[in-house]
Structure formats: C-alpha cells, structure tokens
From TrEMBL, chain A:
Coiled-coil parts of chain: none
Species in which this protein is naturally found: Sinosporangium siamense
Membrane topology annotation: Multi-pass membrane protein
Entry GO CC: plasma membrane
Keywords: Amino-acid transport, Cell membrane, Membrane, Transmembrane, Transmembrane helix, Transport
Protein name: Branched-chain amino acid ABC transporter permease
Keyword Cytoplasm: no
Compartment annotation: Cell membrane
Membrane-spanning residues: 6-30, 37-56, 62-83, 95-115, 135-159, 180-201, 221-250, 262-281
Any one Gene Ontology BP term: amino acid transport
Entry keyword Cell membrane: yes
One Gene Ontology MF term: transmembrane transporter activity
Main location, first listed in the record: membrane
Family per record: Belongs to the binding-protein-dependent transport system permease family. LivHM subfamily.
TrEMBL record, chain B:
Species whose genome carries this gene: Sinosporangium siamense
InterPro entries: AAA+_ATPase, ABC_AA/LPS_Transport, ABC_transp_permease, ABC_transporter-like_ATP-bd, ABC_transporter-like_CS, BCA_ABC_TP_C, LivM-like, P-loop_NTPase
A Pfam family assignment: ABC_tran
Keyword set includes Signal: no
Membrane-spanning ranges: 7-23, 29-49, 61-78, 84-105, 112-134, 154-174, 205-225, 284-305
Compartments (UniProt record): Cell membrane
Name assigned to this protein: Metal-dependent hydrolase
CDD domains recorded: ABC_Mj1267_LivG_branched (cd03219), TM_PBP1_LivM_like (cd06581)
Record keyword Cell inner membrane present: no
Source domain of life: Bacteria
GO molecular function: ATP binding; ATP hydrolysis activity; branched-chain amino acid transmembrane transporter activity
Length: 294, 595
C-alpha cells in the first residue's frame, strides 16, 4: 500500500511538470491549429539554457527558471515572426513540416553549442529526499512539481481573468468571430506562441533537474506531450493538466509494475488508443466537420 | 513517331540511372545512387497517400525498416538468397500500412500526423524489445552477398531500379484510374467525396497498402545491401524526414517529383555526412531545408516549373470571374408528371443534439415521389442538420430514415448515394483542384473492386459529363479548375455533379442562396425540367417567392420539429407558420411585391 501511495505521489508530481510542459503545445494548437513539433526542442533549449546559467552563476536552478522563461518568450516571439506567421493559416501539412524543420534546426544548434552528451542540472539538494509517513519523495521532485503547478495556476488565471486570456480563448473557439469583435488574431497567436515557448522553457529547466537530457531527447518529449494533449483533448488547457497527471501516474506505474522499458511505450499506446476510441480526448470538443471552412 | 523533348530527357535520365554502375567504379557514387533509389521508391510510395490522398505521414520510413527486418529475420532462419524474401517483405509492409490506414477511419488532419509519429516510435519500440525475434538493439547481421565479387553492386542496383520502375508504373496507373480520382476527391474534401458515392475507407486502405508495398521491398534490398539491420538505423525519424523532404521538394502529386527530390536530397545528405561530419550538420541541413521549402517553394519543383508557362500565358488577360454566364434559351419544361402518391423518403422521429442543444428533436415528414418538396423554417430550426442526417454526413441520435422502403439511417454516405440520394451543400463544395469536367465525372454510382481499375475519365463518361454541363449551362467551362469559378457557377456545376449519380431524390441546400436573380430563375427552371424528367426534390430555401412558386408540398421546421405541412397556399395561411417564420408582415409584403 505504501509503495502504491509512493508511486501515486511521484506520478502526480511528475505529472505536474508534464502539465506545464504540455500547456504551450495545447494552447498553440487551440489558437493556431498548429501542432508544434518543435515544442520538445524548445523544452530542451530551456533545459540547456538553465544548465549554462546554473553553471555560470551558481544560483539555485529553481530561481533561474524565471530567467529562462523570459528568454524563451523572446525566442518564441522571434520564431513566430520569422517562420510561423507566413504560414499561420496554411493547412496542417505545411505547418507540421515547418515546425518539424524548426525542431531539427534547434536539435542541430543545441548539438553544436552544448554537444551531444548527456547533461543534468544538479543543485546541492539533488540527492536529498523527504520522508513522510513512510513515503520517500526526492526533494527536487517536490519543488519542481509544486513550482510547475503554481505556474500553471497563474497561467489558468491569465486565461480566465485577463483580456489576453479571453482573446486567446475566443480565437481558439471561433477565429472569424474573434476577429469580428476586434481581436487581432495574428497578435494573439504571436502572444500565445511566445507564452507557450516560455512555458516550455520554464518547464524544461525544471525537467533538467529531474532527468538527464541531450539534444536528441526532444523526440521522446514531443511524443509524450502529444500523448498528453491528445488524451486531454487537443486545445484544452484543463485537459492537458488532467492528461499530464494521468500519463505521469501511468508511466511510473508501468515502470514499477511491468518494467522500466515500458515507460517509453506508454505515450505511443495512449495516442493510438485515444485517437481510435475517443478522438476528441477527455475534455476536447469534436470539431464540426460538415460545414466547409470559410 | 516524334518524341517530345520531355520524353527524350526522361529516357536519357532513366538510362543513366539504370546503367550507373557501368559509368563509374567509384563506390562512393554508386552508394549515393543506390540510396537515392531507396529514397525515390519510398517517396513515390508516400506520394500515393500524401500527394494523392492528402494524408501526411511522418512515419513512412517505418515501412523501409519493416521490409528490412522481414528479410533479415527470414534470412537468419532459411538458407536461401535474401532476394527471395523481397516480395514477402513488401506484402508484410503493405499489410502493416493497411492497419495504419484503418486508423484514418477515425482520425484525420492533425490527429493522423500525430498517429504516424507514434506509429514509427512504436515500431521502433517493438523492434528494440521483441528480442527473441529481432535480437533487440544489437540488431541482425545479414549474410554477405554470395555472388561473384566482379558483379559488385549490380544486383542491388538493378533490383532497386526495377522496384522504382514498378512504383512509378503503379503511381501512373493510380493517377489515371477511378481509384486515383477517388483518392484526389478524398484529398480535396473527404466528407463531400462520401456524398457523391466514393467509398472512402476502401479507397484509403488500398492507398495505404499501395504506398508501402514497394517501399517494403526496397527496405529488404536496402537491409541486404547494408548487411546490417538495427532499430536505430532502420527506424530513425530522420529517414522519414528525408522521404518527406524528397517528396515535397520534387512536388507532391506529380509522377516524377518524388524521384527528382530523392536524387537531389540524398547527394546533399551524403555531402553533409562526408564533408562536414554528419550529425549536427545533417540536422541543421534538413531543418533549414524543410523550413525554407515550406516557406519559399511549398508546391515543389515540378508543379512550380509547370506553372510558369501558364502564368506567362495568362499574364495581363482578364480573369474568369468577369466572364458572363451564357444562358441558353430552352423550351419551356413539360408539365410535371402526376404524383404517383408513393412516398419516396420518410423521416420518422429524427433527433440530433449538439451538447445540450437539440438541433433536431423528433422531426418527422415525408417526401412524395415525383414532388418538389420544400423544407422551410427559421434559422437554427435544424434544416441543414436534417439534410446532414439524411445524406449521412452526420449520424443521428435517434429516429429512422427510409428511402423507397429501405431503411438508410445506418448506412454510410456513399451507400446512400449509390441508392439514389444526391445532395448539394449550402456553401458549394466542389473539388477545387479538379476541372469542372473532372468534378462532374468524379461521382460513383456504385462500388466494386473492378471499378477501381477503370479509366478515370472514359470517353463515354466525358461525353455524359459534357452533356450535363451543357444542360446546366456550364459547358464552356469544362476545363477550368472548379476553384476559379464564381459562386453561382459552382452551384450549377455541383448540380451537374450529383446528376451523374442519376439520383432519384435530390437534396438541394439553398439552391437560390447568394446568386443573382437571373441565375435563380435559371435554377428554378432546371429543377422543374429535372422534375418533369422524374426526379424528386427536397430543397431548403429562404427565398419565399422561389419556394412558393416551385415547391408543393412544403414542410415547415421550427425548433427541430416539423411544425406544419401542406400546399404553398395552406402554409401561407397557417397562423403557426406565420408566427414562427413568415412574420405578420409577410402577406402585406407579398401583395405589394406583386406576386
């Protein structure tokens, strides 16, 4: 029983980080109908930036996540302007290939700058753990998970309470409608993309404290995050949180009860099953397909 | 016989590729051409589902790997030349591809792209972890070639040349048959394709099989050529990226585009690997190429080059939009036949909810055979939803639909089309990339496997289509892409399109909506003429003079139910209809309007 509880708590903390990582992917899809394959690469860029800042400054990596988020916000804005804006309304074929290209470029750049070796961010408390009621939880997991959940809560408030959040939600539900009521969908898309990349960077710097990483790990991340947003429903932020928690728990369980190599298979199986059984995901809405696009 | 320069050029290139090992002993260049052939075959296969059918896959490399593994595993156990297993490798790859194709029954667009990525990783996972079969991440070493070393790479090279030739013949054949035409209809608008009788699932399954058949075979040869097969090398996503790049660069949907692309990308890749150490340089190269291609040359080389002369030719001339529609004088339609009294379509207790909204809520009505039945009602009363339910674009939550004594509410759209149901859409949905004539030829009145191999446009069909286009007054536009026609012109072509189905019941969604008065009149007389010819109509329309002058009987929908029915006179006098739809001022207006 204790071990089950331990797995559950670990799974939820991991899931919190996954949720932050997935938030940008699902928001960008919601507003732009773009599957940002480069999202995993942005996460790793964030992790490598945090690594360099941490080595250089010696500050607590948890503090540095804010700096990384700010830098990555700028990176996201730039990538949107240069690469995505020209094809924002293009069909999915185009944007998927484009973001795939961006992912490969980022992977190559990271390889040139940081090398293709495994890195990890290890603060002084990296090997410490909390023991509570027989549970044994690594400190970094707790701090990372809580920070991620706090950022997500802030993001949720932005979405619910601010004009920007309403504009993002409006654009994602009905783009022509949003435009008619004065939302500049292109600026909202830029803002969403930059926010999504900032979230990826911040989540990435937390991820870097939990797992070793190298430039090529972005495939594994994008696969996992796609599973999460597909499970939660493409475009839904609460869906992504639920999906992330479920996948986090499922992975820890698969690893403990079946075997560690099965962790990698969980996302792919989830993608197949969800898209076949319930393509709209847990909290997504089925897109109406009978009306021709305007 | 005179050969065009194009044919001669292709012949020369084909000869150079075929006999390449005779031209140089340099193994570096021989290797480059062999790999280019492998990618050309893979890209030609991908072209069938991406170029023709419109499903983009980032997992095409998996079929290469599956083919290689089939060959490697069998060669381990049976002591014959691995070449023996090449056809089987293709069949296994095709079978797996068809399984992947099953997925497209439920997911399209974004979901499908995600699935293909997951598919590739899943196959890699299986290859890594099913150690007893695949020897895991250590991989399988294949026997060295058993032929005279003097032959060198010839057997590999020629095998791949033959496979490429076969893929191209298949690709060419698909493009010119009913099969290919159906695939393009699916690419342009899959739901619409269903309503004109295209049995999309079968078409897609076959397309997926075809897209992997020769790729699996090429994979077997490729694995044998490398003499080593492992999960990382075979299922890396970079192979899939290179295949997609080749296809996009050369031009998707074209016959030779994939080959051209592959023979450009692979040498560039080889240079990146050998001169610049591969690895990161290769990633940067592929990444930059993808981004630049998508932004600067999205259609690829061949379509762009082919488009140049047309652009030069049409520069400075007026567009189609200014052209006037010639309306031929036609004899007045004969009197409508006496209604048979038989019910052709019956809808009973139909229901459909969207979330909490009951768009259609226990709707029942009939359409008598030989009638022009009007379906009117305020916006949001559920008219278009009823059409979608009858046509099969949407599945209802309850109720029954009977067409001529046969229950059809569980049938897929194409079966309903085969039973004699034709529909147009509120916003026209033609296949924009096809010409008007191809649009009219595209519908299929039945389904059989034999049909797939028939010519896309046979002489008889072209003549019939021409006749129908002439009938609606669009004959002069037969060779114009449908997307360039004006809205009203598209409406007429869409009418001609469903007439090919020879439907018994024609559903028209706002035939008079958004077109000019002359065309409205023309539309009305076309409908009368077709009706006199025995066609039954059910039409949704807001233009009251049009409906009242044309339709009898009329059904009035309000809040998802049939509120009233009767002749135009009865409907106009019905107080419930006046309240729910026509409005108090309606009678006044119509008297003033002089009708």
């Amino acid at each position: 029983m204790t071990s089950f509880l331990q797995i559950l708590v670990l799974g939820i903390l991991t899931g919190g980080v996954y949720a932050l990582l997935a938030s940008g992917l699902t928001l960008v899809f919601g507003v732009m109908r773009v599957i940002n394959i480069a999202h995993g690469a942005f996460i790793l860029t964030g992790a490598f930036l945090a690594y360099t800042l941490w080595r250089w400054s010696g500050l607590d990596p948890l503090l540095l996540t804010v700096v990384v988020a700010a830098v990555m916000f700028g990176v996201g804005w730039l990538v949107y302007l240069v690469a995505l804006r020209p094809v924002r309304t293009a069909p999915i074929t185009t944007t998927v290939l484009l973001t795939f290209g961006v992912a490969l470029l980022l992977e190559g750049l990271m390889g040139v700058v940081w090398g293709n070796t495994s890195h990890s961010i290890r603060p002084s408390y990296a090997d410490e753990s909390f023991t509570l009621a027989g549970l044994y939880i690594p400190e970094v997991q707790v701090y990372g998970g809580l920070l991620a959940l706090a950022v997500l809560a802030a993001l949720y408030l932005i979405m619910q309470r601010t004009w920007l959040g309403r504009a993002i939600r409006a654009s994602s539900v009905n783009e022509p409608g949003a435009r008619l009521v004065g939302v500049s969908v292109s600026s909202v898309a830029a803002m969403t993309f930059a926010l999504g990349v900032a979230g990826a960077g911040m989540g990435g710097s937390i991820m870097g404290m939990l797992y070793p990483f190298l430039p090529g790990s972005h495939y594994q991340w994008i696969a996992r995050l796609l599973a999460i947003v597909v499970l939660g429903g493409l475009g839904s932020l609460p869906g992504a949180v639920v999906g992330a928690l479920l996948i986090g728990v499922a992975e820890v369980m698969a690893s403990s009860y079946i075997g560690p190599e099965w962790t990698t298979a969980v996302p792919f199986l989830v993608i197949f099953i969800v898209l076949l059984v319930r393509p709209q995901g847990l909290m997504g809405t089925r897109l109406r397909e009978d009306v021709a696009p305007a | 016989m005179r050969l065009s320069p194009y044919t001669v050029a292709i012949g020369v290139v084909a000869a150079v590729i075929t006999f390449f090992p005779a031209l140089t002993d340099n193994l570096y260049y021989q290797n480059m051409v062999i790999l280019s052939l492998v990618f050309a075959i893979s890209a030609a296969g991908l072209n069938v589902i991406t170029g023709y059918t419109g499903y983009i896959s980032l997992g095409q490399g998996a079929f290469l790997g599956i083919g290689a593994y089939v060959c490697a595993i069998l060669s381990q156990h049976v002591d014959v030349s691995p070449f023996v297993w090449v056809p089987l490798a293709g069949v296994v790859a095709a079978a797996v591809a068809m399984l992947l194709g099953l997925v497209t029954f439920r997911s399209r667009g974004p979901s499908f792209v995600i699935i293909t990525i997951a598919f590739l990783f899943l196959v890699q996972f299986v290859a890594t972890n099913w150690t007893s079969l695949t020897n895991g991440s250590a991989g399988i070493t294949m026997p060295l070639p058993d032929w005279d070393p003097a032959l060198g790479n010839w057997p590999f090279h020629l095998a791949l040349v033959v496979l490429l030739a076969l893929s191209l013949v298949m690709s060419w054949w698909i493009r010119r048959t009913k099969f290919g035409m159906g695939l393009i209809a699916i690419r342009e608008d899959e739901d619409k394709a269903g309503t004109i009788g295209v049995n999309a699932p079968v078409y897609k399954l076959l397309a997926f099989g075809a897209s992997a058949l020769f790729v699996g075979m090429a994979g077997a040869v490729y694995g044998y050529y490398l003499t080593f097969v492992d999960p990382i090398g075979m299922f890396t996503i970079l192979v899939s990226v290179q295949i997609v790049l080749s296809l996009i660069l050369g031009g998707r949907g074209t016959l030779f585009g994939p080959v051209l692309g592959a023979f450009i990308i692979e040498p560039v890749n080889a240079v990146a690997n050998n001169e610049f150490g591969g690895g990161n340089v290769r990633l940067l190269l592929f990444g930059a190429l993808l981004v630049l291609l998508v932004l600067l040359l999205p259609r690829g080389i061949l379509p762009t080059v082919a488009g140049l002369p047309a652009r030069r030719r049409t520069r400075g001339t007026a567009g189609l939009t200014g052209a006037r529609l010639e309306i031929a004088e036609r004899p007045p339609p004969p009197a409508a036949p006496a209604p048979s009294g038989k019910v052709l379509l019956e809808v009973k207790g139909l229901a459909k909810s969207f979330g909490g909204l009951r768009a259609v809520d226990g709707c029942s009505f009939t359409v008598p055979e030989g009638s022009i039945t009007g379906l009117i009602g305020p916006n949001g009363s559920g008219k278009t939803t009823v059409f979608n339910l009858i046509g099969g674009s949407m599945e209802g939550d309850g109720g029954e639909i009977w067409l001529d004594g046969r229950r059809i509410d569980r049938l897929p759209p194409w079966s309903r089309a085969h039973l004699g149901l034709g529909r147009t859409f509120q916003t026209t949905r033609l296949f924009n990339e096809m010409t008007a004539l191809e649009n009219v030829v595209a519908p299929l009145r039945d389904f059989s496997f034999g049909q797939l191999r028939l010519d896309g446009v046979s002489g008889a069909e072209a003549a019939k289509a021409q006749e129908l286009l002439d009938f609606v007054g669009m004959g002069a536009y037969r060779d114009h892409p449908a997307g360039q026609l004006s809205y009203g012109q598209q409406k007429l072509v869409e009418l001609a399109q469903i007439l090919v189905l020879d439907p018994r019941l024609i559903l028209l969604d706002e035939p008079a909506g958004g077109i000019n008065p002359t065309l409205i009149e023309r539309m009305g007389s076309l409908i009368r003429e077709l009706n006199a010819d025995g066609k039954t109509f059910l039409l949704v329309e807001h233009n009251m003079p049009f409906v009242l002058g044309l339709c009898d009987p009329i059904r009035v929908l309000a809040q998802g139910r049939c509120l009233a029915e009767g002749t135009p006179q009865e409907i106009q006098r019905d107080p419930r209809v006046v309240e729910a739809y026509l409005g108090d001022d309606y009678l006044l207006e119509s008297t003033n309007g002089g009708r």
